[in-house]
Recover the amino acids of this structure.
């Protein structure tokens, strides 16, 4: 086995500014290219475009009416019209076949070429046809209602400058100039090499027993590359074999403007990459004084730039967003979106004193007044779920010891398209809740369990906590209502072991799959064990010890039932609704309430009101009734 | 000829809200579809995604170190380590081939599967290998440094809700769940039918003598459709032939969710469309009380929705942005960008009293403090150049009589990607100026000529005016410096008519092509004519009358030279630089100064300072010297 104990230590961490400079010093910008007009939106002009023709290209009638010689109409008015001989007509898109002489007029439509001789147009509303003549009731000066050739755009004029971003209106001007091939800045090609023997592409079969996991970083970073104006190219995964890694990295470097490696947290893979860059390219720096991202590598490989990203998904996205995306945008000629950064207030006090720049992943929410609140997430857990909890990053200076509650901070969003949730809910996961959330605009729910949910609600950050079972609710909160659900033991279909109830778990040698201590349904189970213990005159702990698997508590509400479905357990703690969904048997142990409790400071926040209304509607339209064992419950306390 | 005098009058104009409702009532939303994960960025989830697997799928070491039974380490510390027998190693991505018994340990790397028997990991830093054993210098509890299966995402949990916009981080979560095909909202297909016999597609040959013009609206609106989340489909142009129009519209309706007609201002074409919709579909409304866009049609055709847009480019984009784009976004499930609207102050007072909603195209600029200023552009001129001068639209209520200078207004941008210019310059067009502008970040220049430029500078809106020739500069302004240029008569190559100077224009029957009265070079010409008249003791007007073509004044600075190149004139008013560029002959009549004059309220605005610096640099690096007849001039007055 390679590397576990001899992996490289990064000692001389460079300043983050040095890393920015090193990445800026790399040349990512590809050559300019030409794209069809229909594909030019969102691109950036590579060079100035001068008009090569007049718009319009001819003297053009700008009204429906009659083309005349202006001086023929002098003196005409409503009372004393001038009568001109009609000599023909000119339609838009045709070449005039008439000439307008003295005392003559030709019918003309908007956009038509002015016939020779005519220098003005009388609008149709001020005329009247009288046989082969037209009575003109107004005087026009030469040039009236005529747009001279080149009035709009003159040939030779600077139309659009280099660096102009092409939005619909610029596309319009290019159309007017007849340009169907547009010279634009090239999009840098970015090769992404994932490292780690354990990575599997989404869609492929996952062999969990071998420790395989789906590759998260490749697709996340590829999407980030495209968003920054680059073109992403995914390369096969590389393990920590030197020859393979070298071959892949060099292939990517030959084909791309920038190569990013990303994926594994394996120190040995980082070591191998380090050696490849040192031997086949130029390592500019390794190790940056930033958290996360300490082991970041920056260098050159063949004629391409190279940056190595950290392995954890949020860390990889953070380093990409902070150091790499700006370089890709720069190379593509795109400015950073104005909404890539938002300002908010810290919802909690956050301590920090580690002596290096911290790029702190944060979530956003809104207070009752609609002001943005910011709270830290993912304290280095490496969890992929943090990806959707974290909206962006706050850069905390090395000499900042803490961020105070209420302190203003700037959040660099992970994407300009990131939308802060309209509601932050935490607590007990539940299938009815999932359906309820589907009816809301843009909610965020963190399934941390009832106890942890209440604890967080007490901390003041979330808008609401979802609490199930006999959990102590001693947190200042407002009851928004809820529902009840039947809980018990999920068993195989047909209940082959003939499990009759809780006593069977205690008295027989059955393999049980429990939920974790934060789950409300676990509190219901513990209460039932307590009751049985009292009946039998023994301690609760004694009964719990007798249940095989009591100590193993899964976080997911379906996990025990899925263990039963896989044949890994004889019984699992769960809901009737889950058993029914998975086609399993169910032994009821009771009914528990699920309630939504709101942060007292947020009851009038739109997202909370929307939830409250959705809850009410759901009670009426059968959302709960459609789930086995569910019932809407009437509101237990004042709103 | 059809329609000029019998075109439909729209009498009963409906309220704009009714038009919004009518368009909302149309069903544009296509079916959901499935796209590969790599193409899912920017799309919107069509349905809720629940996790169908645990992440991680196995109990996972979260540190490099040794997998142990936690209870074996109880009591271990630096002073008194516990020694465990090494039984093997587990690497990430491989299935463990060891089992950890009592008193045993297995080397393990981050991300590897926990071997059977082990329940905790001791980090490598707190251990030391001693032969076939490992000394453990810290106690770990069961579960320490282990991420249990499902801790990150539990199978059965709601992962992403319907309507979620997919940014890189959501792509990451989908990857983690192994999802490579994503159910997303369909993008509405929008067919665009241009009307007008005179329209030609960019890239095709333009026959100006027939009054042909390039089709601006099709590409502009197509880009707007794509930006709003739809897919645009361009159809061939239709004239005002009923059969052809019917065939095209019905074909588009059969293939698309929405059909837009756009292009011509021809009333007869609108009439024909009106009849097609009435006969083959359902006309919901015709005519909306809004300026522009009065003749807007809304209806259904076959199973598709139909909206008719006005013909002038800015009007078409305005109506599209206000009425149609929101419906496309709604159908695609996309929210409007937060930066689609900006707030600013009116830079000028603007009167309005027409009794219907006015969608006023406006330009943006910044004052010295960086605050956004808003000014009206394109008062119904139909000019395509307004497309790049207008940044968006201000909706002015029917009962608003005027917008005061300084009044706050909300501007709906034509695109969230529209960037307000860093500099608003107006005045004399000039090839050196074009090169200078190329060096600035995002300037806007309106080539209105020296006189009009000065007038506008006096009005207080622009940042700078570029003024050439002997034009009265009686406007309060600050001189930023400038250059000089040689002007005179552009003649055919080799000067076949042997034009010697101004006197030849007066005395011989030569066809002359002049510039318009706003041009500074025209002022130079007029001054030279004045001088010649004085020499001869006649009036200036007498000499001017003797010049054939004196009254025809083009707006474009290259236009006279281009007329000479085409053989349409014997001599044209212009610059030595232009003659050289076009390979023509030149008869010098003198040198004139070109100066940049700044608005006194904007001299410290970054864009103006940038221009000032660019001007200085250009004087040093040869920008002027590279143009025939040009010279940098020293600054004439205080800065």
């Amino acid at each position: 086995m390679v590397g576990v104990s001899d992996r490289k230590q990064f000692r001389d961490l460079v300043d983050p500014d040095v890393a920015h400079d090193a990445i800026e010093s790399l040349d990512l910008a590809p050559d300019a290219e030409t794209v069809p007009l229909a594909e030019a939106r969102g691109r950036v002009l590579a060079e100035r475009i001068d008009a090569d023709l007049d718009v319009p290209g001819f003297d053009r009638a700008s009204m429906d009416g009659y083309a005349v010689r202006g001086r023929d109409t002098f003196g005409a008015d409503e009372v004393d019209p001038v009568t001109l001989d009609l000599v023909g007509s000119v339609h838009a898109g045709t070449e005039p076949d008439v000439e307008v002489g003295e005392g003559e007029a030709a019918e003309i439509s908007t956009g038509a070429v002015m016939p020779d001789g005519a220098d003005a147009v009388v609008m149709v509303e001020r005329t009247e046809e009288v046989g082969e003549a037209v009575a003109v009731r107004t005087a026009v000066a030469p040039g009236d209602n005529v747009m001279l050739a080149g009035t709009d755009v003159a040939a030779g004029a600077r139309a659009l400058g280099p660096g102009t971003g092409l939005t619909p209106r610029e596309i319009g001007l290019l159309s007017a100039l007849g340009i169907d091939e547009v010279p634009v800045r090239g999009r840098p090609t970015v090769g992404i090499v994932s490292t780690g023997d354990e990575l599997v592409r989404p869609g492929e079969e996952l062999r969990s027993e071998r420790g395989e996991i789906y590759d998260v970083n490749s697709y996340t970073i590829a999407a980030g590359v495209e968003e920054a104006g680059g073109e992403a190219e995914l390369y096969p995964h590389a393990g920590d074999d030197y020859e393979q890694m070298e071959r892949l990295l060099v292939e990517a470097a030959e084909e791309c403007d920038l190569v990013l490696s990303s994926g594994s947290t394996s120190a040995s893979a980082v070591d191998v990459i380090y050696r490849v860059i040192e031997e086949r390219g130029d390592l500019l720096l390794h190790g940056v004084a930033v958290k996360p991202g300490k082991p970041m590598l920056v260098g050159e490989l063949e004629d391409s730039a190279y940056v190595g990203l950290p392995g954890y998904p949020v860390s990889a996205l953070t380093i990409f967003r902070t150091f790499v995306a700006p370089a890709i945008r720069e190379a593509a000629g795109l400015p950073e979106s104005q909404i890539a950064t938002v300002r908010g207030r810290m919802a909690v006090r956050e301590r920090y004193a580690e002596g290096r720049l911290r790029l702190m992943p944060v979530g956003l929410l809104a207070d009752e007044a609609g002001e943005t609140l910011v709270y830290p997430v993912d304290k280095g857990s490496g969890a992929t779920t943090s990806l959707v909890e974290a909206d962006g990053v706050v850069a905390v200076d090395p000499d900042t010891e803490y961020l105070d509650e209420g302190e203003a901070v700037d959040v660099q969003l992970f994407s300009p398209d990131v939308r802060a949730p309209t509601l932050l809910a935490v607590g007990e996961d539940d299938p009815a809740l999932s359906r309820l959330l589907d009816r809301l605009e843009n909610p965020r729910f963190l399934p941390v369990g009832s106890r942890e949910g209440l604890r967080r609600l007490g901390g003041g950050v979330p808008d609401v906590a979802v609490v199930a079972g006999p959990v102590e609710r001693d947190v200042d909160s407002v009851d928004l209502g809820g529902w009840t659900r039947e809980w018990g033991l999920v068993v195989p279909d047909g209940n082959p072991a003939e499990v009759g109830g809780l006593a069977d778990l205690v008295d027989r040698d059955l393999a049980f799959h429990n939920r974790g201590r934060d789950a409300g349904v676990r509190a219901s189970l513990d209460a039932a064990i307590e009751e049985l213990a009292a009946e039998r005159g023994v301690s609760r702990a004694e009964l719990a010890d007798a249940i095989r698997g009591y100590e193993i508590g899964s976080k997911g509400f379906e996990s025990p039932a899925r263990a039963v479905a896989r044949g890994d357990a004889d019984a699992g703690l769960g809901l009737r609704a889950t058993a029914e969904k998975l086609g399993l048997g169910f032994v009821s142990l009771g009914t528990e309430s699920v309630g939504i409790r709101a942060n007292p400071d947020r009851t009038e926040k739109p997202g909370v009101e929307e939830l409250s209304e959705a809850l009410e509607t759901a009670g009426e339209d059968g959302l709960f009734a459609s789930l086995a064992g569910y019932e809407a419950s009437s509101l237990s306390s004042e709103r």
